[in-house]
Amino acid sequence: PAADDEIIISDAGTLKRLDIKHIQNTPAFAATTSSSTGIGDNSYTKIQCDTEVLDSDSTYDNSTNYRWTPASSGRYFIYAGLTLLPDASGKFGPTIAAIYKNGSMIVESKLDTRKSDNTSTGNVHFHELCNIVEDDGDDYFEIYAKTNNESGSDNSVRGHGSEILSWFGGFKIA
Length: 174
Description:
Radius of gyration: 20 Å
Strand content: over 45%
Order of helices and strands: EEEEEEEEEEEEEEEEE
């Protein structure tokens, strides 16, 4: 049914009308990265998920702030997955991915695979994170990543036009 449709329910013999929108998981959005984003050493960088897969209520900004403002109070499930690439020498320091609410971190994922020489090599660091949060109607959500390489060189979040390698999404819990 469409969001503006209604259903009839019986409440102890009394018929009541209910808008479908009250039992749907909307607003909802999902977005991916179309290209890689450089992550400066030892500083949080906002990830630009610029390709919308879903935006039920046109509440995700995929072109300037790369944030979701659901515009409806309630409880939300927010999730993200980030694929981080090594620096130019193929090394990683500790990496962090984080979901922010109104500019403050609410959940993070840390990965540190350094060896005794304070470096690690490998293909990627992958972070998956999620959280259930309350929204009062004007809150906004963003994702960030950080690395801390002893070499001081940058890592990057991998993005690709035709493959889903990093993503960000959320939906209202009905």
